[in-house]
Design a protein that fits this description.
CATH superfamily of the largest domain: Periplasmic binding protein-like II
Largest sheet: 5 strands, mixed
Strand content: 15-25%
Strand order of the largest sheet: 2-1-3-10-4
Order of helices and strands: HEHEHEHEEHEHEHEHEEHHHHEHHE
CATH architecture of the largest domain: 3-Layer(aba) Sandwich
CATH class of the largest domain: Alpha Beta
Mean pLDDT: 91
Shape: globular
CATH topology of the largest domain: D-Maltodextrin-Binding Protein, domain 2
Length: 373
């Protein structure tokens, strides 16, 4: 075979693969008819405390009360929201629990570039200033009077965060507010950050709960600041395939009713022990003490402690919309532009069903809060 023939063959193979891949992405999922049993695949993050309504729904199987009889649900763990978004873009998962940044990116990133998968934000899992927005510093760092001082200390230091996540947005917001610039601001996942903090290769890191509490409780680093110090909100969101919403409005409504039950359950402080037991059963290598502290534990004010650990919004209120607007502008400003526009696309937020359910129940947002103990 000549070199030209080999190149032509390689080109044909690549083109064929691309066409077949696009065809797979473009192919819709048949979710059946209204009232039929359904098999759902749900991507969720038991390693992200702000999205633990998914843990409760899974642990208590609240969905069984609302989905058609005979339905089944497979909960698949995603260590980061971006993993869940990729699976949903390929229609391997149908519903996703994730942080604000991947949720927003999901409404943009795959719509045109990945065969037209339409993913929409349908509910708010919760909001906070100290769930995703947490700064840790190495153990031998100075003691700081407040979080602003802690971030100022990071000037010229080596800092890391998972880029494109809510932690990244928080770090990039805090640096200019503190008037500093790290020597290196590195893109590292939670496993690498944990390892590098333990080895003394990082001066500081921005990370989410419960990993933040795990690192602190294991003595690998100290908590130094949070969104409380910079009035920076973070959030968790539920996203859903639009195909599912359109084909099975009964399932769409059923899942949101189960989500409402989960959030009301979490907002009741008498359920704390049961919630932590469920979180322990759905995670690995994290003690119940650490899990409890990530959801309920109080920190001193000079370490970014605040009264509210999580607020259960359920719908996109004016407060939540402001968070979405700011986060979308941030994503649009990044070099790789995970958001294709400075505002969320029309239809990207579809919380009409959540609002309908809330009204029928005679409830208002927020449903409740978890206060720091």
């Amino acid at each position: 075979m000549t070199r030209m023939t080999k190149k032509l063959t390689f080109f044909v193979i690549c083109l064929t693969t691309l066409i077949m891949t696009q065809a797979v992405f473009a192919r819709g999922v048949d979710f059946g008819k209204s009232g039929d049993p359904i098999h759902l695949v749900v991507g969720y993050q038991p390693y992200y405390t702000e999205s633990w309504s998914g843990v409760v729904n899974n642990g208590k199987q609240l969905w069984k009360k609302y989905l058609p009889a005979g339905s089944t649900v497979e909960f698949q763990v995603g260590l980061q929201g971006s993993v869940i978004v990729r699976a949903m873009a390929r229609k391997r998962q149908h519903i996703g629990y994730m942080g604000d940044m991947p949720a927003i990116a999901s409404t943009f990133r795959y719509l045109k570039q990945r065969g037209g998968t339409d993913i929409r934000i349908v509910s708010v899992l919760g909001t906070s200033k100290q769930q995703c927005n947490v700064f840790l510093v190495r153990n031998d760092a100075p003691q700081f009077a407040n979080g602003l001082e802690a971030v100022k200390w990071m000037n010229g230091k080596i800092v890391a965060a998972p880029h494109g996540a809510c932690t990244d947005r928080f770090a990039r917001l805090a640096f200019p507010k503190a008037g500093i610039k790290p020597k290196h601001y590195m893109n590292q996942n939670i496993q690498l950050i944990t390892k590098n903090l333990s080895r003394g290769k990082l001066d500081a890191a921005a990370i989410w709960e419960p990993t933040a509490s795990k690192i602190v409780k294991e003595g690998l680093a100290r908590r130094a600041a949070s969104g409380e110090d910079f009035d920076a909100l973070d959030g968790g969101f539920m996203v859903m395939l639009h195909d599912l919403m359109v084909q099975r409005p009964d399932v769409y409504e059923a899942w949101l009713r189960a989500e409402l039950d989960a959030q009301l359950f979490m907002a009741d402080s008498t359920n704390a022990d049961e919630i932590i037991t469920m979180a322990k059963a759905q995670t690995e290598n994290i003690s119940q003490e650490i899990l409890w502290h990530s959801l309920y534990g109080n920190y001193p004010e000079n370490q970014g402690g605040g009264d509210i650990k999580i607020q259960f919004d359920f719908i996109v209120t004016e407060r939540v919309q402001k968070l979405l607007d700011n986060a979308t502008q941030f994503l649009y400003g990044l070099r790789r532009k995970p958001a294709a526009a400075p505002t969320i696309r029309e239809g990207g937020v579809s919380d009409e069903m959540a609002r309908k359910i809330l009204k029928e129940k005679g409830l208002t947002s927020p449903l409740g809060v978890i206060k720091a103990h």
